[in-house]
Amino acid sequence: MLRYLAVLLVLVISMAAGIFIGVKIGGKIVEKESNININATVKEILPAAEYASLIYQYTTVITHSEAVQLFGVDIPLTGKKAIYTIDGAIKMGFNAADIKIDVTYGNIVLHMPKIKILSHEIYPETFKLYDESTSLFNPYTLKDANAIQLANKSEMELKVRQNRGLYVQAKTYAEDQFRKLLESVPGIKDKYRVVFEWN
Known about the structure:
This protein is α+β, with helices and mostly antiparallel strands.
């Protein structure tokens, strides 16, 4: 009789241990599958190409002056001066395909790539002359106008790269838009917190 009770007790303990281990393992599998599903869902929602989070539009005033020189000295009657304005737009953002996603401890962590200048357009039709003085021997030409526009374009890009505030705005706008996209998906807002980590 005691032998049967011992065998029965061993069977009960083995079954309980098996159920406990099964639940633990099953729980881990479900959690892993859930993370995979969340990753797939997030990737489907987010853009898969270049994303412009900020468009910086500007009107710039260009002051230009020059003269023909000989041995570093301006030659008389060759000086010219002009004041122009021109409009342009610089798009700042990143390649959304470079975003890495982690799901940990109730957080959806988006590892964001660096903000960069995606494109820079200048609008030649807005190129306006406000004041000009030229000489007979050194007039302004179409080639001069093109060179002035290109030089101004490079200067504006440099100013944007040095303007930390624009990068902060671009990151803020991207976070706001992506958070709204993700939190609009049923189940995400209630269970997860969206976190952004920028390179």
